[in-house]
């Protein structure tokens, strides 16, 4: 009975998710028009363009978000609910039960500097796709199949570029978590979660069009995606961002001390 009730709720959410667009599907796609809200998250924008979320980018309730992430990307209910809770804080209204994609544009709440594909808020527009910024990220994607090292290199480069040029550069530990999730998202949605790989062409198509890459052969994941999957890929990216290499096996104890002295007195 409980499962039946949940299914009924989710079905109702789907029926109302896109009142200005029609039935959600991979084939149905329409970019934002006049009066439609979009935010800094290319995935939520994409789901709205396909109608899995409201095409106008408004009134994203828990049920609508859970259903949209499930129908579009096969996220499980608990993960969809968690994603909603994370986004809800961007709505400044007290006791809000929904958010809009425009709410997500509030700087330093969820949106952050050093995005993979957006300009920093300091320069005026922090939510529209910026091809110049994205080209800087892609410069570190050097093979047809991206791995976590290439993705991490692009992330690190964007942080260095942003810090060097933006006098208001801000990047807290919580923003680091959002950034890691941003970098991990294409692997989770379009790639190999177990090995942290994804076809470069799928990722570029997604970012540049804010459209699911069905035209390139992508299909909705068959396996339900959970928080465990998100955490797995995020941790891969986190580890890949470290610029410290492992010590060679068999290195002698005390070598660090000698190296330090050598560096000081050369």
From TrEMBL:
Heme haloperoxidase family profile domain mapped to chain residues: 25-232
Cofactors that this protein relies on: heme b
Similarity annotation: Belongs to the chloroperoxidase family.
Biased composition (Basic and acidic residues): 256-266
InterPro entries assigned to the protein according to its UniProt record, in alphabetical order: Chloroperoxidase, Chloroperoxidase-like_sf
Protein name according to UniProt: Heme haloperoxidase family profile domain-containing protein
Organism: Aspergillus cristatus (Chinese Fuzhuan brick tea-fermentation fungus)
Transit peptide listed as a keyword: no
Location of the region described as Disordered in the Swiss-Prot/TrEMBL record: 243-266
Comp. bias regions, Low complexity: 245-254
Alphabetically ordered keywords of this record: Heme, Iron, Metal-binding, Oxidoreductase, Peroxidase, Signal
Any one Gene Ontology molecular-function term assigned to this protein's record: peroxidase activity
Keyword Heme found: yes
Signal sequence annotation: 1-24
PROSITE patterns hit by this protein: HEME_HALOPEROXIDASE
């Amino acid at each position: 009975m409980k499962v039946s009730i949940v299914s009924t709720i989710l079905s109702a959410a789907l029926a109302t998710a896109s009142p200005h667009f029609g039935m959600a599907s991979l084939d149905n796609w329409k970019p934002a028009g006049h009066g439609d809200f979009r935010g800094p998250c290319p995935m939520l924008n994409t789901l709205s363009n396909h109608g899995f979320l409201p095409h106008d980018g408004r009134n994203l309730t828990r049920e609508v978000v859970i259903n949209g992430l499930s129908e579009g990307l096969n996220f499980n209910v608990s993960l969809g609910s968690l994603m909603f809770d994370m986004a809800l804080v961007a709505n400044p209204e007290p006791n809000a039960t929904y958010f809009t994609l425009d709410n997500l544009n509030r700087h330093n709440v969820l949106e952050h500097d050093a995005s993979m594909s957006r300009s920093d808020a300091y320069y005026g527009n922090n939510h529209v796709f910026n091809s110049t910024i994205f080209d800087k990220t892609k410069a570190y994607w050097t093979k047809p199949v991206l791995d976590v090292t290439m993705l991490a290199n692009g992330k690190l480069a964007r942080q260095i570029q942003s810090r060097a040029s933006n006098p208001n550069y801000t990047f807290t530990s919580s923003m680091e978590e959002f950034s890691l999730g941003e970098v991990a998202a294409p692997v989770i949605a379009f790639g190999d979660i177990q090995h942290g790989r994804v076809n470069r062409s799928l990722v570029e198509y997604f970012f540049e069009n804010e459209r699911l890459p069905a035209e390139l052969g992508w299909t909705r994941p068959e396996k339900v995606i959970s928080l465990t999957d998100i955490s797995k890929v995020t941790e891969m990216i986190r580890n890949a961002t470290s610029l410290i290499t492992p010590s060679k096996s068999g290195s002698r104890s005390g070598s660090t001390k000698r190296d330090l002295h050598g560096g000081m007195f050369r």
